[in-house]
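for the record, two folds in this file. i put them one after another cuz i was lazy. first one right below, seq on top, structure tokens after. the second one comes after a little note so u can tell where it starts
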Amino acid sequence: MRRFTGSLKNLDRSARKDEIMHIVEKMKQDWDRRAFRNARFWVDTDHYQDEEVFDQAGNKDVRVFLSLLDDFQQPDWHILEIGCGIGRMLKPMSQVFAQVTGVDVSAQMISQGRERLQGLANIALLENSGADLRIFGADCFDLVYSCIAFQHMPEEIFDRYLDEIHRVLRTSGYLEFQICVGPRREVAFEDTLTVRVYEKSELFEKLERNGFSLKNSYTESIPSANPQSWIFLAQKNTGVKRPAEVPSWERECRSMPSALEEQLTLQLAKNEIRSGKTMEAEKWLRRLIADNPAHLEAWFELAILQINQGLGPQGIETLENMLEKNPVFYSGYYSLVELYQKTGQSEKTANLLSRLRGQQTELNQTLDAVEKLLSSAKNKA
């Protein structure tokens, strides 16, 4: 069967189910969905394959974070991670500090994290609103850190967290966080996945405005990389006058998943196919199609997967369903006719050709009517 991957484009996403919701509800909805489907993948798309690989990546990031703290850190500290997911970094941090707390907007992430880390007495995982730290009082942590979390949040939420972190940190406490640096990248407010990129100067201004002074920074990115992933260490200032108000984050947004989430879901399905995990791949492709019936590449990948497994009738049915949902995707008819011919289904071939001719007749009639309308308007002018 022909692959049309190079020219496949999803049809109009506006036809998908959509609704208006609050940004906090959107973040919870999106990250609960991702956690339910494959938490490790959505926490770290490069190191999700098994628990060992996942833990090794967490250990590596913790070593980098601790190297920046250097002589500042103390073993009796109480520390907080924002956007802890299922506890990728909490576990190694718990071996260094007295008490480790993690918060995440996703109840699913927290539930799975508690299961993963059960038995570790000095770790607590809590669901929070995703936009503040109101579940904590003031001056209760020595260190607040975040890795691969702030970059996915709307800027207004990031600003809100900086204000809240200052409140919950003890006198002269520390903030350490990872974020992407480069030419500023604007991202739709409701997008909870695409990486936001900030210029260094505006990050420094945010820290200063919220009562922090920069102590250290680090990047493993190569100089030519754009953007670059940086880690910044800052200390809470005392006696600094800070703004009375924080930019508003109380906004509504659209509920649809982002295009990047679809792209990464398709990538995961293809990874599973290459690994021989065909049942997992089919599950991901079906979920992607359920989320977006106009995702043509997902339909094609599912049909090809089925055919390569010797499930020709199912592959044919998948293409038939695709064209029922996306009747104007004419390249798909070629592939379907090709399969009909290979399987000797001449009657279905004839019916499909008749359907296409009917569509062609209707299209020609529409074109004629439009041309007459334009001609009439031109003559009147």
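(here's the note) second protein begins now
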Amino acid sequence: MDKIRGNFYKYIGIVIDYVLEFFITVFSLLVEVFRSFRSLLISLLFFGGCLFFFILWIPLSFGSRDGIPWFWIVLFVLVFPVAGSFAITRLKYLQYMATEYFYERADYYLLGKNVTYDTMGDYGRRYARKIEEERKRQAEERQRLEEEMFRRQFEAFFNDARFGGYNQGGYRQGGYDYGSAGYGNTTFDGGFKEKYETAARRLGVSTDADKYEIRLAYKKLAKKYHPDLNLGEDTTRLFQEINAANEFLSDENIARYKQMYGQG
């Protein structure tokens, strides 16, 4: 009976996860499309000035009489990126809340693990707390990285002035060359970028995925390939790879990748 209940909660969670992921993907695509149209309209207005304003105003004022509501179309193009982004945030909130609720109950009946909360709303409140904690952590991390970068640049500039223009790229007359010292676009990360992208591919997420998308992907794959739930085939090695990828995509490495390569 416990196995039946566990599989029931598991498959309910999977269905909800895929359905909400579908809507998140659709809304994300639409937001990008309408954001591009909005940028085009703003650019035309900026470069065209008053001439474009009057050209645009004519169809906006009289086009609806011919059955084409131009005013509402333009308004929708301008507003949808903001409304769509809000909808994506709420869908991710629902996805986390529902999947955590059903997956934990599946673990309770199938694997004997404890349930963290009693109601789905408790998972939602935990998600809100984690979002706020993540926002504060990222702000502190950005400030720390900026202070560290400023300190290194100051020390390098001081040494450059002190030793007459010699830097890691060689001797140069004049001021300090940040690119030669490793502060430009070229980054030597010891293979970090390749390892990060390999781990992201292992979990089936993009490199700009946030920690919650990564965690959901990990939980989905861990349940799918857990050795205890796949008695007919050996999934131990694959399960270990999934765990290793999840461990590598830690909060620290996510922040480091986004800082180094401008993702997110």
